């Protein structure tokens, strides 16, 4: 499965939006993975697009590198980032509350820009630093909202292989459900939030 130019059928949105986390990959490997899957537009969805341990993925550097490689670069971290500065987007344990982000006007603007690009036939990949899509807001927040719009989502892994959202959902359905200390089944769906706490917990 490769990300060839997406068609725009009458009366609806069709096609696939990809995600790709760069982690500590060499820049050349990351860009090669994108080319293999036909990516045309790299959409940076990091709230803070800088990392001291991988300076080649800092916003200014990756924008130049992507453009040199023939890709378009679009920064939408302000609209679609998963770690906003406002403490109102976090619960008392420091988890990001995705429902609050998704309800903002800026987020809707960002999602609409992705959908507009898809309608125009571009093959887009959302990127941030997290390698594993199972733990990342690219999937848990953005992918969920895109699927609600009828868009297919697929994830380019650091190995260059592709895993579809349908495969991940099937994987989750087959996984044993964890029991809480009180004997009941603990449902992740109770709160639409990040998989990991990213801020120190706040006392009441």
Describe the protein's topology.
Elements: E1 16-21, H1 27-36, E2 41-44, H2 59-68, E3 72-75, H3 77-80, H4 98-102, H5 105-119, E4 124-128, H6 137-148, E5 152-156, E6 162-164, H7 165-174
Parallel strand pairs: 1-4, 1-5, 2-3, 2-4
Antiparallel strand pairs: 5-6
Assign the structural class, choosing from mainly alpha, mainly beta, alpha/beta, alpha+beta, or little secondary structure.
Answer: alpha/beta
* CATH structural architecture: 3-Layer(aba) Sandwich
Low-pLDDT runs: 1-11, 182-189
Which CATH class is shown? Alpha Beta
Q: DSSP strand (E) fraction?
A: 5-15%
Mean of pLDDT: 88
- Summed up, the domain count is 1
The number of distinct helices, counting runs of at least 4 residues, comes to 7
**How many whole angstroms does the radius of gyration measure?**
17 Å
In helices, the fraction of residues equals 25-40%
N-to-C SSE string, H for helix and E for strand: EHEHEHHHEHEEH
Describe the structure.
- By secondary structure, the protein is α/β, with parallel strands linked by helices.
- It has a single domain (16-190), classed as Tetrapyrrole methylase, N-terminal domain (Cobalt-precorrin-4 Transmethylase, domain 1, 3-Layer(aba) Sandwich), CATH 3.40.1010.10.
- The chain has helices at 27-36, 59-68, 77-80, 98-102, 105-119, 137-148, 165-174; strands at 16-21, 41-44, 72-75, 124-128, 152-156, 162-164.
- It has a 6-stranded mixed β-sheet with strand order 3-2-4-1-5-6, sandwiched between helices.
- The longest helix is centred in the middle third of the chain and has 15 residues, at 105-119.
- The relative contact order is 0.21.
